[in-house]
Amino acid sequence: MKTGLNHTVRVTVAALSIVMGLGAAVPAAAQCPGDVTDNAEVNGGDLGLVLAAWGSNGASEPGTDINEDGVVNGADLAYVLGAWGPCPTAGIVKAWGANYESQCNVPWNLGPCTTVAAGAGHNLALLTDNSVRAWGSNTAGQCDIPADLGSCKAIAVGISHSLALRTDGSVRAWGACGNGQCDIPPDLGPCKALTAGNSHSIALRNDGTVTAWGYDNYNNHIVPTDLGLCSAVDSGIYHTVAIRTDGIVRSWGQNTCGQCDVPADLGPCTDISAGANHTIALRADGTVRAWGNNAYGQSDVPTGLGVCTDVAAGAQHNVVLAADGTVQLWGYNDYGQRNIPTDLRPCSTISGGFFHTVVIQR
């Protein structure tokens, strides 16, 4: 019976698309458009609310204007019918904290994602089809994805610029470029990772060498000549951290709070992240260390944290991911960036923005 119902719904949606002149097929319900009642399932309850608000602007029942075109009509009905049944969970992006640039308003039609990068006021997401989406502040065009960007495998965000690593290993950049942070070096060559700071960009090339461009007053754009080959790199506002292929952490740039003073007993690490003026590292044994500014307790790693698989630093808070997909946070919380949503499912990816947090559920 279920197969027959699904078949009927698909035919109905196709017919609605033709009759109502919809420009494209009904999108995948990755953010579950149509779940008006917000119960993780699109069913008769959602259909009833849409029909009750038909022809209105949806003000009488928030959420019924699913496509946000100002009226509840057949287009919204098509979304409900197309998403009928349980809502998908894997790849769903969730965001919370400061929202002054709408950086926590995840696009309702974003689609399932594999990677997310949180910045000061904007975010980038890498979808499962290798396309890139952006939302939030766009004062310098940092959310204007190049039309010819193509297939990508990694993303990074600076204060007001964005970076993408294409599947062929080439790098693209857009947004603010007042200090050359979007001027890709012509001899860069194929890369495997990216990061961005205030007004500079850094790439980890396929051969393990690190290249930087742009400019800031703390020489973040000048890679140490004795750095050696690296396996990971990350940049805060004015300082950069890297993990060499032997697991040793190196850091350079602004050091006003000791954020570049790598602890002598740190040992080999597998992941690293730079905040505004602190640093957090994931050691090879799954334990976490942090150092630098501690005005908000961001360098005080909680006791009993357990074994972790990923770390991410916001401006003044930290996000860590445990093996079971649970998320823990500590540090600054004036914008609620540490307030984990009660409906958050186990996660696969984490990212810390300035004063907000973004994750992907698995």
CATH classification, class level of the largest domain: Mainly Beta
Order of helices and strands: HEHHEEEEEEEEEEEEEEEEEEEEEE
Please tell me the CATH architecture of the largest domain by its name: 7 Propeller
Total count of strands: 23
* Rounded Rg: 22 Å
Strand order of the largest sheet: 3-23-22
Q: Which term fits the overall shape?
A: globular
Count of domain modules: 2
Topology record:
Elements: H1 2-19, E1 41-42, H2 44-52, H3 74-82, E2 85-86, E3 93-97, E4 113-118, E5 122-127, E6 132-136, E7 152-157, E8 161-166, E9 171-175, E10 191-196, E11 200-205, E12 210-214, E13 230-235, E14 239-244, E15 249-253, E16 269-274, E17 278-283, E18 288-292, E19 308-313, E20 317-322, E21 327-331, E22 347-352, E23 356-361
Antiparallel strand pairs: 1-2, 3-23, 4-5, 5-6, 7-8, 8-9, 10-11, 11-12, 13-14, 14-15, 16-17, 17-18, 19-20, 20-21, 22-23
Helix pairs in contact: 1-3, 2-3
Describe the structure.
- By secondary structure, the protein is mostly beta strands.
- The chain folds into two domains: 2-86, no CATH class; 93-361, Regulator of chromosome condensation 1/beta-lactamase-inhibitor protein II (Methylamine Dehydrogenase, Chain H, 7 Propeller).
- The chain contains three helices and 23 strands.
- It has helices at 2-19, 44-52, 74-82, and strands at 41-42, 85-86, 93-97, 113-118, 122-127, 132-136, 152-157, 161-166, 171-175, 191-196, 200-205, 210-214, 230-235, 239-244, 249-253, 269-274, 278-283, 288-292, 308-313, 317-322, 327-331, 347-352, 356-361.
- A hairpin with a 3-residue loop joins β22 (347-352) and β23 (356-361).
- The longest helix is centred in the first third of the chain and has 18 residues, at 2-19.
- It is globular.
- Mean pLDDT is 90; it is low at 1-30.
